[in-house]
Automatic annotation (TrEMBL), chains A, B:
Transmembrane segments: none annotated. Ca(2+) 3 binds at D298. Gene3D superfamilies: Annexin (1.10.220.10). Keywords: Annexin, Calcium, Calcium/phospholipid-binding, Metal-binding, Repeat. This is Annexin D7. One of its GO terms (cellular component) is plasma membrane. Ca(2+) 1 binds at F24, G26, G28, E68, I254, G258, A296, T299, E304. One of its GO terms (molecular function) is phosphatidylserine binding. PROSITE patterns: ANNEXIN_2. The keyword NADP does not apply. GO terms for biological process: response to cold; response to heat; response to salt stress; response to water deprivation. It comes from the Eukaryota.
Length: 318, 318
């Protein structure tokens, strides 16, 4: 469920474009006016505003924003303005260039978007970077991470609800054998995680829990410092309970030493129109504090106002 | 270039559907009438005929054809009637069920179709088989074939003409090292073949030839009996010179002991609207005999008539 609030009567996109143009005019910039518009328009409406802006003023709205704004506020507004597939292609490309440190971002995009949305991201990647997403991921990653990441970004998973219980049982057994044998980059384990539908995987993990006494994630904690095992646990979480994965990502971004604004922005901006309501509920439950309260305590200025507008008011949700 | 001949004035699809309905009526079937219509309608027109037939008679044209025809003629007409993405999904699924013997068919579909067409095949696979193509390929193949086939069917290659010559040179070197070291299922070699654009691969193979004295395919002939090496050579051919790959497939289908009707039908039906003209030219050059002559000598009856109608008349081409 989304947290984005769009007013009942949205003005025509030409009017929004005009207001933005005025907000940029003269000395200084009317940041509040910018937030007031952008934080309350959905993806289709934001696209129309970009088009109306280009038609009326012959300028790319993104370029104008870059001139007027700065820092975390700029980054958040730019990401929000991009079309979702373009945005994910951008985030993936940025992560690829930062190499192994950012494998999680690529995995998150590959595992939490719908199959068709992932395909649209691959199309946007062609258009923006003149390469394929899997080509860059394969080239810039190595070892076990590559073995898992390339099929994850290349997947076009079946999305029906059908579950084959006999298969779930037999594949739970394969997973248990591999994990017990510390063969967590084994090709059978990777085949199962990267090709089966999410419904099928859910059944397989339930079988695992029922027959082997532990949740699969618990068995993958054998060595809590092993980076690949941590990555594998995050992958399983993204595939089965994305809201829990995102709750943890937000928690780490907010409660660490300093704030990880990149992670905070990424989760809020990519999820505000999708699943942020559920993520807020998870956050409240796990941290005994609302996400609104946590974000307000860790951010400031226009950046804070914008994130809070996307997260939604405290008394309204969770 | 296609060999399909469509008349200047194509009758409305309702009229074609009616003629087909009449061809099925009473005792016996008017096979010639069926060939006369089907062999001279393009994909969009065949689709309209299927729709018009369902609307007028409440029956699926494919089911009706199954009742009326048989053998190789039936198989050819059925495959031809399917929409291209559905047809490729069907051929891939059929090949998957026959396991390793048919890896070539899956590779051929993955490597010779455009990136977007391959995606449409993956969508059709979801719709027809309630699974993903890569899921079935990964489950039913093993070893080196699996390592190569899964990324081949999952690829969404970039299709621009841009070539990075420095990269081509460095990747030609990697390929040469792996092949010299007999590591032909090495993950770097597979990464290059399965993720780079066809234009980039072509440049890489040229660099290989220029710097290491042999065409890459020649170096992959070290052990001519090795099935995986043969598969790798066929993959490279499909990616760079599909008409040569298809010429050889036709040659083996026709000149072997008996005729391989499945391969013959598959190539003619899938290529008649795409590239069969170029394949015919290759065939003539390599065999000193036209494809029309070869097909006529190896087939008979309605099946022969239908294939020849798709291949085009002798004096017209090649």
């Amino acid at each position: 469920m989304a947290t984005l609030k769009v007013p009942a009567n949205v003005p025509p996109s030409e009017e929004d474009a005009e207001k933005l143009h005025k907000a940029f005019a003269g000395w200084g910039t009317d940041e509040e006016g910018i937030v007031g518009i952008f934080a309350h328009r959905n993806g289709a409406q934001r696209k129309l505003i970009r088009e109306a802006y280009a038609a009326a003023y012959g300028e790319d709205l993104l370029k104008e924003l870059e001139k007027e704004l700065s820092g975390d506020f700029l980054r958040a507004i730019l990401l929000w303005t991009l079309d979702p597939a373009e945005r994910d292609a951008y985030l993936a490309n940025e992560a690829i260039k930062k190499l192994t440190a950012s494998n999680l971002v690529i995995m998150e995009i590959a595992c939490t978007r719908s199959s068709y949305d992932l395909f649209k991201i691959r199309q946007a990647y062609h258009a923006c970077y003149k390469k394929s997403l899997e080509e860059d991921v394969a080239y810039y990653t190595t070892g076990d991470f590559r073995k898992l990441l390339v099929p994850l970004v290349s997947a076009f998973r079946y999305e029906g609800d059908e579950v084959d219980m006999i298969l779930a049982k037999s594949e739970a057994k394969i997973l248990h054998e591999k994990i017990s044998g510390k063969a967590c980059a084994d090709e059978e384990l990777i085949r199962i995680l990267t090709t089966r539908s999410k419904a099928q995987l859910n059944a397989t993990f339930n079988q695992y829990n029922d027959h082997f006494g532990n949740a699969i994630s618990k068995d993958l904690k054998a060595d809590p410092k092993d980076e690949y095992l941590r990555f594998l646990r995050a992958t399983i979480k993204c595939l089965t309970s994305p809201e829990k994965y995102y709750e943890k990502t937000l928690r780490l971004a907010i409660t660490g030493l300093g704030t990880d604004e990149w992670a905070l922005t990424r989760v809020v901006v990519t999820q505000a129109e999708v699943n942020l309501q559920r993520i807020k509920e998870e956050y409240h439950k796990r941290n005994s504090m609302t996400l609104v309260h946590a974000v307000a305590g860790d951010t400031s200025g226009d950046y804070e106002k914008f994130l809070l507008a996307l997260v939604g008011k405290e008394n309204e949700h969770a």
